[in-house]
Every structure is written in structure tokens, then in C-alpha cells.
Amino acid sequence: MADSWNKKEREKKKLQEKKDKAERKKERREQANSGKGLDAMMAYVDENGVITSTPPDPGKKKEIKLGDIEIGVPKYVPSAEDAIRTGRVTFFNHEKGFGFIRDQASGESIFVHANNLSAPVNENDKVSFEIGHGPKGPMAINVKPLS
User: Fold this and answer.
1) Longest C-alpha distance within the chain, in Å?
2) Which of 98, 142, 136, 134 has the alpha carbon at shortest distance from 117?
3) pLDDT the model gives residue 81
4) What integer pLDDT is reported at residue 86 of this predicted model?
């Protein structure tokens, strides 16, 4: 049985693709950096994270202590302004036992857990509280409703 026209065309196409691939491979070999040394292949990263071909200047080297590197949420350092604050409860879920208080001075929203309440609170109640450190950042402690 003779080969069909379509089959012959496919075989021609495959042979042409093999030739093209061999030519591209030959061109890559001719243009390769095989004659250059290791220095020509090196890449450096500067202090801004940009990849460059020039090595860093040893005079600009900064010594960094291992303890100064913070990974994750920075440690909470209480300050003098962390005395008793006032705010308004913007959200509180009694079933789950948590909510948020909007600080009157800074306007930031602070997490509050039911364990840190001295008396039950509802949304829009005015409260006084202190800032403590929770597992995921600052949280309100010693929360007391204001009359």
C-alpha cells in the first residue's frame, strides 16, 4: 500500500523541524560563552535588590547584627502613651467572644477578646482600655465600659 499524501507531508515537516533544530543548536554553540571566564558569568545583587554585573564596593559594606533582623510581626514595645485610652466598640460578636474597638485618639481599630472585658459590652458602647500584646499584634486589655 502506498503512503498517502498527508503522511508524506507530515514526514517532510518532521524532517524540516529536525533540520531547523540542528541549525539553532549549532548557532547557540557558536555564540556560547565557553571562551569567557567565570568573572564574565557572575551576577551581583546590590543593596536595593537589583541584579548588576559590577561587584559591590567593599567600602559601603554595613555590619548587621543577627538580632536586628525581624521576621514576621515586630515585637511590641510599650510606650508612655499606652496608658488608659478611650474608644468606641465598633463590632462585637458575643457568640465568638471577640470584637474591635476604635481608639479615640489614634483612630486605629484594636482587637478585643471577651476574656479581657470587666463587664459585657455592646456595639457603639464607649469604653476605656489599655493596649496589650496578643499573639497577632496589639490588643485591648482591661476593657471597662464608661457610663
Assistant:
1) 101
2) 142
3) 56
4) 92
Asked if residue 129 lies in contact with residue 140, where contact means CB atoms within 8 angstroms, the answer is yes
Q: What topology is assigned to 80-145 in CATH?
A: OB fold (Dihydrolipoamide Acetyltransferase, E2P) (2.40.50)
DSSP, residue by residue, 98-133: EEEEEETTT--EEEEEGGGBSS---TT-EEEEEEEE
Local mean pLDDT, 10-residue blocks, the chain (147 residues): 78 95 90 69 86 86 85 70 83 94 90 92 92 88 88
In angstroms, the CA 88 to CA 26 distance is 74
For the chain, what are the domain ranges? 1-30, 80-145
What is the pLDDT, as a whole number, of residue 33? 58
What residues contact residue 124 under an 8 Å CB cut-off, 6+ apart?
A: 88, 89, 90
